[in-house]
Description:
Elements: H1 2-22, H2 66-90, H3 92-95
Amino acid sequence: MKLRLIFLCLVLFVMVTHSQAQSKRKKKSKGKQENVTSVDPSFPQAGQYQPKEKKVKRKDRGITYNAQDNFYEQRARVSKEKRRAELELSKPQNSNPLYFGHKRPPKKRPPGKMKFCKTCGLKH
């Protein structure tokens, strides 16, 4: 009988200690503790206080004209490209029919010595 009682007390003791060891709840401390590290175990001194930095709030600046500026820049680029294209077309190899796709006008040979041109498919 005494053995059973001792055995039950031992089992009960093991169960209680095991359940206490496995609990995940943090125990509430009675006093307020500050974080003290092993590097500097002392509490902060009065002269070491630093206030928190204030966050800068972004103010609404109102209407921005970025889209309008981008539009005018794009118009300037397009007009510049058109001017370049017109300048390219005004060059003789594009406007003069004698060039007919050549960089330089082909030589004019006598009818017996004319050669077939691979660029334009005609005899020059």
